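Schema walk-through. Below, the input block comes first and the output block second. Nothing else is stored per chain. Lengths vary across the set, and this one has 268 residues.
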Amino acid sequence: MHRRSVWLWIIGLTVAGVVFWGERGAIGQENEAEPTAIQAAAEEGLPAAPATALPSAPAPPPNLLVYYVKALGLTFVIVFLGLSFALVALLVMCFLQLRRAVLMPPDLIENFEGHLGRKEFQQAYELAKADDSYLGRVLAAGLVKLQVGYQQCLDAMRETQAEEAMRLEHKISYVSLVGALAPMFGLLGTVSGMVSAFTVIAQSATQPKPAELATGISQALVTTLIGLWLAIPAVACFSLFRNWLERFNSDIEAESVRLISKVPVAKK
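--- output ---
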């Protein structure tokens, strides 16, 4: 049975080879017939049939990055690269800092409550003072004024909380600044490109070619496009960060008041 299968494979391959080489021979004969007909027409003095022109291959599309760089020019390339790097750095910084684990560390809350439960008020103050978080600064400011009175303690915590909130708002405001500057530079590039295009028209004695106007028009359109690409995520992220900060401010105020209220001295 095995030998029979082998012979069947050999016969099949032989038939396929014969068919394949037969088709190649037919194609070769057709190709050889064409120059023979042309030679015969040339010998008889008859005009040869015109050769059919093969369609030319389409030109490869230009590199989009190279096109944008050429359209922007060196000045706007430097400006938009600087804005892009600044925006990425600011977004990374804000995403790392505007987190509950950073602003309200769970370890700080747990250890602070443990010291208060064991009446270790000095250790609780040292723990809050050594912690560099938002909540740690608020608790440390409140414990300093605790001996004066409970209301003074609350006022000190609110004042410190306002300062910390202002400090974080200043950081996220730079994201909004990039979102405002990017479309302004895009508009500047638009005006500059249109001025360049109209200058070509004004200085040309004849009707200028479209290629001569393409540089200015490309700069006008590409600078606006890049400016919007930078402005849209910057404005969206700024709104997101501001909402996060408002929620964290409310949570930290409630948590700090809850922790301070557990101090027996504060209730007097």
